[in-house]
C-alpha cells in the first residue's frame, strides 16, 4: 500500500491543476473572508459579536468548496480523459487499492491545504472585525469544522469523478448536489420537506462550519449525514470501478 | 510454462462478439506477431491479458496467473497499449516515477529506461508536447521499468517514421534475443514479416492460424517461376503449362531446373529464371479475406 501512496503522491503533485485548484481555494477563502469581514466591521454599530465575526471570515467556503470538489473530480477523471487510467490499472490491478490510495493521498493533501487556508482566512478576517471576548475554543472548533468540511467536499468530488468518469459531467453533478439542489430542497413545503432539506448534502454538512444545529441535526450529526452522502457516491463509484472494463 | 496462455477466451459487448473462443500460447525467446485486420479483436485480447477488460468467457494467464493476481505486475509484464494515453501535463520523468513507485521500483531505474529509449534530454519536458515517436519511446520506457520477462506491444509502429519503425523493430528483436517473451500486434503483414518468428493470426475474433512465419508462407499459397527471354513465345510453347504475360512467363507446375533444362536443350537464351516466393502479404490476404469486417 505504501508503494501506491507514494505513486499517487507523485501523480497529484506533478500536475498543474492541483496547484491551481489549491491556490484558488486559498485565495477564495482568504479574499472573500477579508472582504466580508471588512463590510461587517464598517456596518456594525459597536463591536462585532464573535459568532458573526467567525462566520464572516469563513464566507469564502461557499465557493472554495467547489474548487475542492473540482480538484477531487480531476484526481480521477483526468486519468479517464487521457487514458492514463489503463497505465494506472496495469501497475495496480487491484482497483480498490488504487482508489484507496487516491483517497488517502488526496484527503491528506486537502486537509493540510484547507486547514492552512481556513486558519489564514480566520486570522485575516478576525483581525479586521476585532470581536471582543473571542474564546480560543470557539476559534479552534470553527477552524477544525471548516477544514474538515472543505476536505469532505473534495472527497465528494473524487467519489463523483469515480462514478461518472467524465470531467464536465462530474463537476456539474458536484455543483448540482452541493450548491443548487440544497437551495432548491429548502423550498419544499411541510414537515417532510423540512426533513429532506435538513438532511440534504451541504445543508447538513455546513452545520459543522456554522457550529449550531437546526431542528433535527447537531453540528457533528449533520456532518455525519454529509459523510454518508459522500460514502454513497464513493462506494457506488468503487463498485463500478471494480466491475467495469477500463 | 507458456508466458501467456489464452484458453477459450471470449469477449462480447452487448450483441457484438469481439473475441470468440480464442486459445493460444505465447512462448519466450521469440517475437510472436499477433496479426489481424483492424477490428479483429487484437486490442481487446491484449486488454484482457492485462486485466483491463473482463473476459465474457474463458481465461488468460500471464506468467501462470491471472494478471490481477500478480504482485508488482510490472516486474513480470510490461506493456505499451496506447502511447498517447498519458497525462500531458506531467513531465516524462514524473510520469515514469509514479509508475515505478507503484511497483516498488527504485527511482534510479527511471533514469536507466530514459537512457535506453533516448529520452534523457527531454525528461523534464511535459509529455503533452511530445511527438508520436517520442510518446512511443516513453511508452516503451514505461514497459521496461520493471525489467519484465514478458512484453506486450499493441501496434507499436503505427504512425511512426521509418527511423522510428526500424528502431522499434531492432529493439523487439533484441528483447527476444535476451530470452524475453515479445508479443506484438499489427495489422500489417509486411511489418510482421520482418520482425516476428511466430504468428498468431485472428480474424473476426477467431483464431485463423498459429504457426511459425516459415510455415505460414509455405502453407498458404504456392510460389511460381518467372521466366523472361527474348524468345518468350517459344519458351511458352515449350513448357506448355505456363501463363503468358506481356514481358514474362509465369509457371507454377515446373521447377527452375526443369524449365532450364528444356530451354537449354532447345537452345533458347534466357534473361531471367527465378523462383518467386509468395509474399507474406499475399498469404495473409488470402487467409483473412473471409474475415474482414468491412470489405472494399
Your description of this structure?
The complex is a heterodimer of chains A (246) and B (296). Chain A is mostly helical and 246 residues long. Chain A has one domain (2-243). Chain A contains twelve helices and no strands. Chain A has helices at residues 2-13, 16-43, 50-57, 61-82, 84-91, 95-129, 136-164, 167-185, 190-199, 201-205, 207-210, 219-243. Chain A is globular and about 65 Å long. The mean pLDDT of chain A is 91. Chain B has 296 residues and is an alpha/beta fold. Chain B has two domains: 4-219, Rossmann fold (3-Layer(aba) Sandwich), CATH 3.40.50; 224-276. Chain B contains ten helices and 13 strands. Chain B has helices at 42-49, 92-102, 107-117, 132-144, 162-177, 189-195, 213-220, 232-239, 256-266, 280-288, and strands at residues 4-13, 16-26, 31-35, 57-62, 77-80, 150-154, 181-186, 198-203, 206-212, 224-228, 243-244, 249-251, 272-276. In chain B, the strands form three sheets. Chain B has a six-stranded mixed beta sheet with strand order 5-6-7-3-8-9, with helices on both faces. A four-stranded antiparallel beta sheet of chain B has the order 11-12-10-13, with helices on one face. Chain B has a three-stranded antiparallel beta sheet with strand order 2-1-4, covered by helices on one side. Chain B is elongated and about 75 Å long. The two termini of chain B are 42 Å apart. The interface between A and B is medium-sized, with 28 and 34 residues. Chain B: Residues 4-229 form the ABC transporter domain. Chain B: Belongs to the ABC transporter superfamily. Chain B: InterPro entries: AAA+_ATPase, ABC_transporter-like_ATP-bd, ABC_transporter-like_CS, P-loop_NTPase. Chain B: This is Multidrug ABC transporter ATP-binding protein. Chain B: One of its GO terms (molecular function) is ATP hydrolysis activity.
